[in-house]
Amino acid sequence: MGVYHGNDLKKPTGGKKRPHQKVKRKYWMGRYPTFTRLDNRDVRVHIRVRGGNYKIRLKRAAYANVIDPETNTARKVRILRVVETPANPHYARANIIVKGTIIETELGKAVVTSRPGQDGVINAVLIEKRSERPAG
Question: Where are the residues of the annotated region Disordered?
Answer without folding.
Answer: 1-23
